[in-house]
């Protein structure tokens, strides 16, 4: 019998108000601290130039780590990094059961093996379009279409109603890998869905996302016209695109050469679960060297300009056994993700200077998104008809547009929330009843650190302003026993008048110690004053505020 005091809540720890790093919680029980929790997805995002030394970012999992005894499990909807990438990093603090369909489970195994974690007894492989029970949550999996195999949406049912969690999805009548259409939601779940938690990535794009079959046909046409070698780069996780490129190679009488570790790994995992069986002839780089250029098609990683991606290394003539030549063609069969423009445009220009032809999605219809555009969103709302709409997986402008669209389609309660909001879905009217911390963790070197760690702000300061080190050897009278030792990095040593700044700073330090008002038996006071004097001196001469280290040595 249902407990009348129970509540059903939704809590996004990451992925709402941003694209990437998805991490969501569903709670069921009488009170926040008495609830059982279901975790859906544990993703990452990637660092940029503003975070020197940081490649991987993930959500702070403190809220659920504190409640690990009430965490009934984690379900991973699919194997994209922004949904599964943080699991192996955060799981040791959770040690809960993991549920995933076969392809995703294979990727999870590999990630845990890389980190030396034994998952025995914890990883549960579930069938596509199946049902399972995790604690108080009855879950029906509905496998959709996306740009990776086995993208799963979830109908999550409790005594308080059913929530539809879409995950990443699209509607593709000819997906090549995946289901052509969602099951008939309209009849099965008519008037029964309490809330829909829905992807917002492409909601502002009119029309439909397009079909993978269209990409396949267009790529065949493009490649047939090319006489020299062809390089195609795409996301390794887009298995349908990998199959498309293999098909294009076969249709244009070219041998397929797969380049890049993650591309080989993805093909291996796909074959393990019965996908990509038709890709049979794959040459290695040595075998390809014996072929005519017109007989080769290279499939490469690095579609976003990643420095160590195969395509960037080939463009830099840094990939052993492959040299790109004049009149070769590089096809970028992928979307330019916001934030990667600088890297990609730099690569485009480098290839152009080498007289290599570059074809992107702007030049030909050679890419379709894995996320639904506006017309597909309208279809979904007409099928599901939820009482509550909760937009996720998008920046605030996407969420706002999505919320307004839901309202126009008759949704009674369109809810606009942010990371950390604890949204009560049932019983009664939906409302944000509390908030929790929703910070960030950075993977720095070999450990996780909070985003507000002081050493990270120091590193950022060094990257923008340089570093200044000053060592002063003092006698018993607290005067300089020898000239100060000054070193600096990242600072121009000459000012606008071409005066040597270090020589001038040395004189300033001598003047500092000649002034008895600056002297004290407490090193901390001298240290603080000298640091302030040195910083101000450098700022006046360079307009920079370097990270300054003062070392006082007594003899």
Question: Can you walk me through this structure?
Answer:
The mean pLDDT is 91. The strands form six sheets. Strands 9-8-7-4-3-1-24-25 form an eight-stranded mixed beta sheet. Strands 10-11-12-13-14-21-23 form a seven-stranded mixed beta sheet. Strands 17-16-18-15-19-20 form a six-stranded parallel beta sheet, with helices on both faces. It starts with 6 loop residues before the first strand and ends with a strand. It contains 16 helices and 30 strands. The protein has three domains: 7-207 and 369-447, Metallo-beta-lactamase, Chain A, CATH 3.60.15; 212-359, Rossmann fold (3-Layer(aba) Sandwich), CATH 3.40.50.10710; 454-554, Ubiquitin-like (UB roll), CATH 3.10.20. By secondary structure, the protein is α/β, with parallel strands linked by helices. The longest helix has 20 residues, at 523-542. α6 (212-224) packs parallel to α7 and α15 runs antiparallel to α16 (523-542).
Distance between the termini: 80 Å
Number of strands: 30
- Roughly how much helix do the residues carry, as a percent range? 25-40%
Number of domains: 3
Which strands sit side by side, in order, in the main sheet? 9-8-7-4-3-1-24-25
Here the CATH topology of the largest domain equals Metallo-beta-lactamase, Chain A
- The radius of gyration computed from the alpha-carbon positions, rounded to a whole number of angstroms, is 29 Å
* The CATH superfamily title of the largest domain: Ribonuclease Z/Hydroxyacylglutathione hydrolase-like
């Amino acid at each position: 019998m249902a407990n009348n005091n129970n509540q059903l809540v939704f809590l996004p720890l990451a992925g709402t108000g941003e694209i990437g790093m998805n991490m969501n919680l569903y709670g069921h029980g009488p009170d926040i601290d008495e609830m059982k929790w279901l975790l859906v997805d544990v993703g990452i995002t990637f660092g940029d130039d503003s975070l020197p030394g940081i490649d991987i970012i993930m959500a702070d999992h403190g809220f659920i780590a504190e409640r690990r005894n009430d965490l009934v499990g984690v379900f991973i909807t699919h194997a994209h990094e922004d949904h599964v990438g943080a699991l192996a990093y955060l799981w040791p603090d959770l040690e809960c059961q993991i549920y995933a369909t076969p392809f995703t489970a294979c990727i999870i195994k590999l990630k845990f093996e890389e980190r030396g974690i034994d998952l025995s007894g914890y990883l549960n492989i579930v069938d596509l379009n199946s049902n399972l029970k995790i604690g108080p949550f009855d879950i029906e999996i509905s496998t959709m279409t996306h740009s990776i195999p086995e993208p799963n949406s979830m109908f999550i049912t409790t005594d308080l109603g059913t929530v539809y969690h879409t995950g990443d999805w699209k509607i593709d009548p000819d997906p090549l890998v995946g289901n052509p259409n969602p099951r008939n939601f309209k009849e099965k779940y008519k008037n029964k869905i309490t809330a829909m938690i829905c992807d917002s990535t492409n909601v502002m794009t009119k029309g439909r996302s397009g079909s993978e079959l269209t990409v396949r046909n267009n790529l065949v046409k493009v490649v047939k016209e090319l006489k020299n070698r062809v390089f195609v780069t795409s996301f390794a996780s887009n298995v349908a695109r990998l199959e498309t490129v293999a098909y294009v190679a076969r249709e244009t009488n070219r041998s397929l050469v797969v380049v890049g570790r993650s591309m080989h790994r993805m093909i291996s995992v796909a074959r393990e679960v019965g996908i990509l069986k038709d890709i049979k002839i794959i040459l290695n780089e040595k075998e390809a060297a014996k072929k005519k250029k017109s007989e080769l098609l290279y499939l490469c990683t690095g579609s976003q300009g990643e420095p160590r991606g195969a395509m960037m290394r080939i463009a830099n003539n840094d990939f052993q056994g492959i040299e790109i030549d004049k009149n070769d063609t590089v096809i970028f069969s992928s979307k330019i993700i916001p934030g990667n423009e600088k890297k990609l445009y730099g690569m485009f220009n480098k290839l152009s200077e080498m007289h290599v032809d570059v074809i992107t999605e702007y030049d030909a219809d050679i890419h379709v998104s894995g996320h639904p555009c506006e017309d597909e969103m309208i279809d979904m709302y007409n099928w599901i008809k939820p009482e509550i709409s909760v937009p996720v997986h998008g920046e605030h402008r996407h969420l706002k547009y999505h919320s307004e669209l839901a309202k126009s389609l008759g949704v009674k309660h369109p809810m606009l929330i942010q990371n950390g909001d604890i949204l009560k879905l049932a019983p009664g009217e939906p409302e944000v009843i509390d908030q929790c911390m929703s910070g960030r963790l950075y993977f720095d070197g070999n450990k996780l650190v909070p985003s507000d760690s002081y050493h990270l702000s120091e590193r950022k300061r060094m990257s923008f302003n340089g570093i200044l080190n000053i060592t002063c050897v003092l006698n018993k009278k607290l005067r300089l026993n020898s000239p100060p030792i000054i070193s600096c990095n990242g600072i121009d040593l000459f000012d606008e008048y071409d005066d040597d700044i270090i020589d001038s700073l040395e004189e300033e330090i001598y003047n500092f110690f000649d002034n008895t008002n600056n002297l004290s038996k407490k090193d901390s006071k001298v240290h603080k004053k000298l640091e302030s004097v040195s910083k101000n001196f450098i700022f006046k001469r360079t307009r920079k505020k370097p990270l300054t280290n003062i070392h006082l040595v007594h003899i």
